[in-house]
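Field reference: sequence -> structure
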Amino acid sequence: MIEFERRDNIAVVTLCRAPVNAINREWMERFGEILDELEGNAQIGVLRIRSALRVFCAGFDIGLIRRHLETGGGPVAQIDDTRRLQDVYFRIERLPQVTVAEINGAAMGGGLELALSCNLRIAAAEAVMGLPEANLGQVPGAGGTQRLTRLCGPGTASRIILACESVTGREARELGIVQWAVPGAQLEREAAALCARIAALPSETLAASKACIAVQSDSGRTGYRMELEMNLRLLGTPKTQACVAAFFNRPRR
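Structure field:
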């Protein structure tokens, strides 16, 4: 369903629930167990989320929705499951690690919302992504309306959500939904190189930078003050001191 491995200081989550990585309760529970291992783990600097299938993630299991309606659980049960998924994505968003979504194929509904909860997104140019919940008479409920709007603005969010428009990875790059779009044959190599480059940086610095970026959208906190506070703390850590020393001791040309 979901595989988890550690490669040095990079954690790799591989979605492998055939045929389309549909999300059900077991999927959410398994992801929660993985997050339990990652939260507070200073030895891991990067979380890479990828798929072993041709699809990245197709969103909520339609069979689960159908069972809710047929067994009398109805909307209440569906909202409970959506709330659980929101909680998983909130936890991903708040991880100290830099999170990278490697979108190799279709990322629809909750699958795109998973990618949006990550810091960075690299997609195959041919991948397709969208938030088609309006086709089911629903609103994207696992953070899609909030994160996509914050990321790309209300114009692009309205295009994707209200018009139920799907876009390719290349188009998503142009719209700012993903940061990189590369040919599908190069995706795995490029994603691995990106994660390795980030993982080479001090994990304390990455976590502090993430926290500063996050408060930018929180009007109740001052990001500028936090930048100063974080740097003051980081300058007292051995890794930051080593980075500074290496910079000043680098060979001169």
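Note: The chain has a mean pLDDT of 89.
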